[in-house]
Design goal:
With 236 residues, the chain is of the alpha+beta class. It has seven helices and eleven strands. It has a single domain, classed as Alpha-Beta Plaits. A three-stranded mixed beta sheet has the order 10-3-11. A two-stranded antiparallel ribbon has the order 1-2.
């Protein structure tokens, strides 16, 4: 890789920017032939599983335990659903839904919130001015604001005080591994004979996620809004 390409990736020691045109390598650009998504089976997830998802995301991206730092961002959170009649409870991970028509992108005045051609919704930390319009626009409460000075950031997740952030679908893994990528939350709970979180290409009818959706269907949260999220749920 040449010097100009390296400059586009590294802006400071240990801090790497996401390249919106990369998928594995500089000669394999992102395009809209792929749309990445996840199918989350709440019937297969215990409360401990969802806690494991949250912890895995925190380790992968370097955000703090919100119980210890109440103002730090949270890229994924545990939601408890309880039937008031029966008392039955379910737990699910809630994160950016990576909408096909993301309202966070529509309201951003600088273009910092953007959607890649492959459906992943991200925030450019260099152009985010911290107005938080995107946080107000998100119906999933999936974005948060960084109030504190940050230290010991991870190269895969550059973060900055005064900016907004949210789940990236572990885009660094996707750009490295493509269809073989597994986001950290899925990696934390999936096993050889049990995969409550499927990641894959929603545009490919032969992918595991598309086959499962064709067989069992999937719920889009707030489908009434017409946003067509890339995260789908079973068992709700």
């Amino acid at each position: 890789m040449g010097g100009a390409a390296m400059a586009a990736l590294f802006v400071a020691p240990g801090v790497m920017l996401y390249r919106t045109g990369l998928a594995k390598s500089a000669d394999a650009p992102v395009d809209d032939s792929v749309r990445w998504g996840m199918l989350i089976d709440t019937n297969e997830l215990t409360e401990a599983d969802v806690d494991a998802c949250v912890s895995a995301c925190r380790r992968e991206h370097g955000w703090k335990d919100p119980g210890k730092s109440k103002t730090d961002a949270q890229w994924i959170r545990k939601v408890n659903l309880r039937d008031p009649e029966t008392g039955h409870q379910k737990f699910l991970p809630m994160m950016c839904q990576h909408c096909e028509d993301p309202p966070c992108v529509d309201v951003c005045p600088t273009g910092a919130s953007f959607k890649r051609a492959d459906g992943i919704v991200l925030v450019n930390k260099h152009t985010c001015i911290g107005c938080r319009y995107c946080m107000l626009a998100c119906p999933y409460k999936a974005r948060s604001f960084i109030h504190e000075n940050l230290h010991d950031q991870l190269p895969v997740a550059p973060r900055g005080k005064g900016t907004v952030e949210s789940c990236t679908l572990c885009v660094h893994r996707i750009d490295r591994d493509g269809a073989n990528a597994v986001p950290a939350c899925a990696e934390a709970v999936n096993r050889a004979n049990r995969k409550p979180i499927l990641f894959g290409d929603l545009n490919n009818p032969e992918s595991d996620i598309s086959r499962r959706l064709a067989q069992l269907g999937g719920i889009k949260l707030r489908a009434d809004l017409g946003l067509n999220p890339g995260i789908r749920y079973l068992g709700l």
